[in-house]
Amino acid sequence: MSRPDTLLRALHRHKLLNNLDLHLAEYLLSEAAVPSQSLALAIALTSRATGDGHVCLDLNEVAGNTLFDDPEIRMQAPGLAEWKAELHQSGIIGQPGAWQPLILDTRNRLYLHRYWDYEQRLGHSLLQRARSVAHEVDREGAKQALGRLFPDGQSGIDWQKLAVATAILCPLTIISGGPGTGKTTTVLRLLALLRQLPGGEALRIALAAPTGMAAARLQQAIQQAKVSVPLSQQQLASIPEQASTLHRLLGMHRSGTGFRHHRENPLLLDVVIVDEASMVDVALMTKLLQALPDTARLVLLGDRDQLASVEAGSVMGDLCAGCDGPDDDFARQLREITMQPVRVGEASTSELRNSVIELKQSFRFDPESRLGQLAKAVNGGDAPGARQLLQHGGDEVGRIEPGTDVTTLVATHFTRLFQAVRAGAPVHALFALLYEFRLLCVLREGPFGVNALNSAITRELIRSGHIEDHNDWYPGRPVMLSRNDYQLNLYNGETGIVLPHPEQKHELAVAFQGSDGQTRWISPARLPHCETVYAVTVHKSQGSEFQAVALQLPDQWNPVLCRELVYTAITRSKQRFTLVGDDGIFEAAIAHPMQRSSGLPDLLAGKPG
To answer: What is the pTM of this model?
Structure first.
C-alpha cells in the first residue's frame, strides 16, 4: 500500500483534489495518532464533498465502491465496517459532540467539524423556533383583515391566504413556490396584515435576500405590488420597501471576517423576511438564525425546486423535506381564520410541518403557456415531454441546433442597450434594457463557458461598431461583481453598467441601482473584481428575471448538469426560453436530480445522528 501522502499527491496531480483538499488532508494526517491511506482518503473526500455543495460525506454511498472516473487512478473505497474502524482509531475523528477536526455520526455521515456544528446549530434553532409558543394573535381581527386583503372571488384554494395565515400563527414560516405563484404579493399582504394587528405599527421589520440583485428585485416587486392591495395610502406608506442583502443585515465587518450581529448582539427586529432562500447556504442561514431574537418572526421565501446554494447545503429543500401538510390542530386553526379547506399532512415526518406551505397556483403562466409547461415537465423529470415542447413551442420556447455560434444572436440583443447609451437614455431605462435578455451558461470555462462567450460577444460588438473604445472599460459594458467589497458596500452578484459620469466630464463610472432605487456611481479603478455579463452562469442568474433567456449547454456531459439547473434557467425567463445544445445532454440533465448529502432533514424529523 502506498503512503497516504503519495495517494493525496497523485489525486491532486490528476485534478481530483484541489489545493484546499490536499493541504487540509496533509495537515490533519500529520496530526493523526494513526495515519493511514483510508484516513487520507476520508479527509480528502469530505473536503471535496463540502466544496461540491454537500454538508458531509455519506460513507454509506461511497464505501466499497469504485472511486474516480480517471482510468489512471481508479481505486476501490474500503468497506464500511473496516473504514469506520480505521477512522475511529485515527485520533482526529470523533463522535457527535466531540471536539475533533472531523465528526462521524451514527448514520455514517462524516463531517468537517465546522459543518457539523453549523448543521446542529441550525437544526436546533429551527426546532426551537417552530416549537415556541406563537405570538398572541387577535384571531378575530386577523380573520377580518384576511377577508379584506383576500376578498372572495378566486376559484379553488387561496394558497396565498393560507401562507399569510400561517405566518401570522407561526414564529417560523417557510413559503415555497415556483415562478409567478405570488410570493412577493404574499409578503406584501403579510406585511399589511401585521401592520393592522394590535401593536403592528411599532413592529421593526426587515426585508433581505442573499444577493444585491435579489434584494433590488424584492424591493421593486413590493413597490409594484402595492397598487393591487386594498389599503389606504397611509397604510401602504407604513409597509417597508427597502431590502438589503443578508450580509448587510447581519453587519459584515469591513475586514470580511465576521458579522456584528450574533447571539450576544442580536438584531433589534421583530420580523425578518428573506427572499430567494434557496440560495442561502447552511453557514449563512445558521448565522442568521443565531442573530435573531427568540421573539422575532422569521419568514423564508423561495422555490424548493431551484438550484441550491453555491456553498455547502441545500437548506430550502431540507426544510421542506418531509412536509406535506399541517397536523390536525394547526389545520383547524387555519380553517378558522381563513375559511379555506386545509388538508392534514398524513405523511409529514418533519417537526416543521406546520411551518411549511407551498404556493401552488401560477399567475405568470396560464395552463396553455408553453413556458410554464416546459418548467413543469423539467421539474417532473419528463424528458420526452420537455423535448416535445422545445420542438413545437411556438413563440415561448425553442431550440437552436448544437454547434450553432450564438455570438451574433446575443450581440444583436445588446445592440439596443448600446444605442440607448449613445442617445443618453436615463439609467433606469438602461437597466430595463439590460434585463430584457441574458445568455445563461452551465460552466465558466471551456468553449461554451461564460468566459469564452463573453469574449466572443465583445469581439462581435466591436466588429459591428457598437463598442468604439477597445479598452476594458467602455460605455455600455454590463459588469457583475465577482466578490464582496465591504468597504464599498457592494456584494458578489451585483450588476452595473459602465457609463459617462453625470458630473465629471470625460470620466467613466459604473452605475449600480441600489435597493433604495438610487443610482450609485463608482470609479472603475475601485472595482478590480468584476466581469462582463453578456453571458452569466445559471448559478449567478438566480435572483434575477429577464424577458428572454437562452441556455447554452456544454458539448459534453459535466457533473454540474442537473434537473434543478435546467429548471432554474427556464424560470429566469418571463416570456421566452431558447435551448442551445444537444438534446441528449439536455435529457440527461433532466434525468439527473441534484442530491446533496445532509443530516438536516433527519434532525428536523427528530432523528439526530
So the answer is: 0.86
